[in-house]
Amino acid sequence: MKPILHFLAVVAFAMAAVRASAEIQEGEMAGYLFGPAEKVPEEFNGGFSLYAAAWPLVATYPGHKFQTGLCGTWMHPQYEDGQKPDGKCYTDIEGGLGWWRDTHFPTTTPKFIMGGVGPNFSFIANGPGYGRGTWENPRGLYGVAQLSPWLLFPLDGLNLKQGTSGELFGYGYLPLPLTNPKATTAGKNVPTGNHCWTLFLSTANFKGPAAFFTPFFWTQATLDHPEWAGMLLDSRPAGPNKAIQMETQHIPAVLTAGANGKSYARVAPTSFPVGREGYSTVLHRLTAYKKAALWDDVQRWFAGGAPATGTIKPEASAVHNFRDGGGSSWSIYPPGTKRDDKVPLAWKSFATSFNPNPITFGYRWNDQLARKNGALVTLPEYFALGTNGKKPQWSVVSPKDVPPDTGLAQFRFERAKEKPQEPRVTPDDAANCWKQPGPKAGPFKARLGDGSVLTYFWYRFADQPAMLNADLTDAEREQVQARVEILHRAWSKDRNYLTPPDVGTLAQIDPALIVTPPRGMEAGYVPIATRQELESPLNR
User: Fold this and answer.
1) pTM to 2 decimals?
2) pLDDT in tens, 266-294
3) Of all helices (H) and strands (E), which one includes residue 476?
4) What is the 3-state secondary structure (H, E, C) of 384-415?
């Protein structure tokens, strides 16, 4: 189809979709915002870290259709020429801050998930006890092992302190040699490497390593696809030059047609953080590392050498600069709209990408169109369907210019009426890995800011369910146990591992998740959540 004919067809489709009924029609706003980071040398292939702003994107949690991440990235394996696996083999770590449809206990404050993706989404691990599948057929539920003795990781994702609004949440992944390489995997002649990609956090009330993907999480896929051996993150380095984006899959919107023949849309109030300087910082200090940043010192330590301090070598780090630019593919459309027919909104009419310094990415706002309110700026809500001269586009309109007959001004974006979410639970039968050999202390309760109650126990590190499902012999698990014990004694939660931010303030994790090991369990034991449920109003 010629460009001009396709343009006219898209406009006609969009207008027809809205005008099919003069009544208000449910829709959504979705798409990507892009952050343009400059590349660093490919030798910085030992992981990454960043500081992402955390804030309430929408004023009212709309219900479980709502799904969006805040600014983050995708960490894929690095391949040299000719090394890439044959056929489709998509795999990465793509977690971060946001809201997901499978979140059981959401609020307007974002949560954090780890987001490990096995080949072609066959396995997904989001945290200890949280991933894809069922307990009868786990496909990632055992993919993450708890490492920190001071941080309790919920089954529903890691909670931030309620009310977080623009503070920076620091996180990243570096490999640690906690396990040894294996020549076989689950008895088959395919190898498993020893890259234990470890989540490091930098927040106001917790710093350091929190949890890690077991190498078997990646290589379990090679049992059916041996051609992928050596191609996954258990052994591959990580590509240092990653996409920086904010992926939005659903923000509620409504569409309708006016008696004047025009089509209009309204989007649920959507906000960004704004500082005293008047602009928004959304991402800061994106850093890539060489493997030697931490690995070499830790490996010598585990072999009997001097203790590793956990300090990441500055000379093994490269901070990405941000260049001018950045864009948006946010679009507004009715349900069922094909990708090529989704009409973008005029993002640049009210938002301008901005780098207050070379390692910080953010936005300036058109004060005539975006409304500032304290620590947040609310984006325009009303749009009219038109063109930018070449393509169809939703352009910002003032509320007073939307015809009253559309009813958009009277529409209220409210939380959907949904049944209370079921508890997140783990197996309770006496013969399973949660009970044999089982915990050493508990149960304990933690009441979280999202209104849920978390039940947890203290397990010996090597006896936690993830380690029992990591394709390790008893002797191999005991070796990791010994390494973790010396790590617990030497690395605390209140010193810097990742370089602190140069701007802003650090976000806090929900204080209820910061725990202290019971006496006698200070080293070699970890807290493991076994149940998460809404608290009964009678027990509040």
Assistant:
1) 0.94
2) 999 999 999 988 999 999 999 999 999 99
3) helix 474-490
4) EEEECCCCEEEEECCHHHCCHHHCCCCCCCCC
Q: Which tokens sit at 477?
A: 């698990």
Domain boundaries, the chain: 3-406
**How far apart are the two ends of the chain, measured CA to CA in Å?**
62
- Tens of pLDDT, residues 305-359: 999 999 899 999 999 999 988 899 999 999 889 998 999 999 999 999 999 999 9
CB 276 within 8 A of CB 424: no
pLDDT score, position 22: 57
Helix or strand holding residue 251 (H, E): strand 244-257
Q: To the nearest whole percent, how much of the chain has pLDDT over 70?
A: 95
Q: Which residues pair with 53 in a beta bridge?
A: 168
Nearest to 219 by CA among 433, 470, 474: 470
Q: How far apart are CA 531 and CA 453, in angstroms?
A: 8
> To the nearest 5 percent, what fractions of the chain are helix, strand and coil?
15, 35, 50
| Rounded distance between C-alpha atoms, residue 345 and residue 330, angstroms | 6
Return phi, psi of residue 446, to 5°. -130, 130
What contacts 29, CB < 8 A, 6 or more positions away? 248, 250, 251, 252, 253, 267, 270, 330, 331, 332, 345
- Which pair of structure tokens corresponds to residue 486? 């010396």
Contacts of 271 (CB under 8 A, 6+ apart): 55, 56, 57, 58, 59, 376, 377, 378, 379
Query: Quick one: average pLDDT of 204-217?
Result: 98
Q: Is the pLDDT of residue 12 over 90?
A: no
Tell me the pLDDT band of 419, cut-offs 50, 70 and 90: confident
Rounded alpha-carbon distances, angstroms, from residue 315 to 311, 318, 363: 12, 8, 31
Dist CA 32 CA 329 (whole Å): 5
* Encoded amino acid at 316, one letter: A
Distance of CA 501 to the CA centre of its chain: 19
| Closest to 127 (Cα-Cα) out of 136, 110, 138, 140 | 140
At 253, list the tokens.
Answer: 């919107």
- The answer to whether residues 186 and 103 touch, using CB atoms and an 8 Å cutoff, is no
SS3 488: helix
Tokens found for residue 161: 């302190």
87: pLDDT confidence band, cut at 50, 70 and 90? confident
Q: How would you label 1-26 residue by residue, b for 16+ Cβ within 10 Å and e otherwise?
A: eeeeeeeeebbebbbebbbeeeebbe
Closest CA to 365 of 377, 381, 349, 351: 351
Q: Residue written as tokens 């380095």?
A: 237
CA dihedral 112, 238, 75, 239 (to 10 degrees): 150
Cβ(508)–Cβ(160) below 8 Å: yes
User: If you search the block for the tokens 């390790």, which residue do you land on?
Assistant: 472
